[in-house]
Amino acid sequence: DTGVSQDPRHKITKRGQNVTFRCDPISEHNRLYWYRQTLGQGPEFLTYFQNEAQLEKSRLLSDRFSAERPKGSFSTLEIQRTEQGDSAMYLCASSLSTGGRNTEAFFGQGTRLTVV
Amino acid sequence: LAKTTQPISMDSYEGQEVNITCSHNNIATNDYITWYQQFPSQGPRFIIQGYKTKVTNEVASLFIPADRKSSTLSLPRVSLSDTAVYYCLVEGTGGFKTIFGAGTRLFVKA
After folding, report:
1. Distance from the CA of A83 to the CA of which of A75, A89, B31, B109 falls in 20 to 30 A?
2. Contact A42 B43 (CB under 8 A)
3. How many CB atoms lie within 10 A of CB A104?
């Protein structure tokens, strides 16, 4: 396992279209996170999963955003009716939580979304 | 959630030691301090994590005073490839819910 992988790396879409991104975490990691990052800013937390359960969602995650992790392995992030303001880098990370303590998070390379 | 404050940017020269300080006045008892490095168009990469006193690994040292309200990342003998953004995070058992913040942009010059 070479780390967290995200697909696609780049996505250009027209405003109003739906897009879906995929994240494959490190296989033994039980936690998975989604972040959004715009130019010059730090990553903004969107949501995270413990196994297949989505435990927290940021207020940044509007109704147009939905994330799933159906079998506690890979995850998808879908954005419906995209807007130009959705243009950003979407980062996925995973970590191993044991006994309440997190190990370091490993990030993927991200998916860069451009809405035109 | 603890909020962190870091300098926006720092400049250094190759071969120098760089110290980046982060303030986290509201850190909770069970929070850990974690530092990440990010290069353009890449995801952040873990550098070091600590709870108190001093932690050292092959790339950096982390100094945490007794009150834990601040921490200092120390990068020994930086090179041009250390030019990046460095983020300080404070996280508890809940994981990475903490907002990264804008980080510190380190520029290493020849």
Report:
1. A75
2. no
3. 16
Record: contact A45-B96, CB cut-off 8 A: yes
Residue A60, pLDDT score: 77
B103 CB neighbours in chain A (<8 A) are: 42
Single-letter amino acid code for the residue at B8: I
Distance from CA of B15 to the nearest CA of A (A): 27
3-state secondary structure of A79: strand
User: Is B44 in the A-facing interface, judged by CB distances under 8 Å?
Assistant: yes
User: Taking the CA of residue B75 as centre, how many other CA atoms within 13 Å lie in the half-sphere pointing to its CB?
Assistant: 26
Instruction: Identify the three-state secondary structure at position B10.
Output: strand
In the predicted structure, residue B29 carries a pLDDT above the cut 90 = no
Residues 6+ away with beta carbon under 8 Å from A93? A4, A25, A32, A33, A35, A105, A106, A107, A108, B43, B44, B96
Beta pairing partners, B80: none
Q: Per the CB < 8 Å rule, is B43 touching A56?
A: no
Tens digits of residue pLDDT in A21-33: 999 999 989 999 9
Coil vs helix vs strand at B103? coil
- pLDDT tens digits for A59-71? 878 899 999 999 8
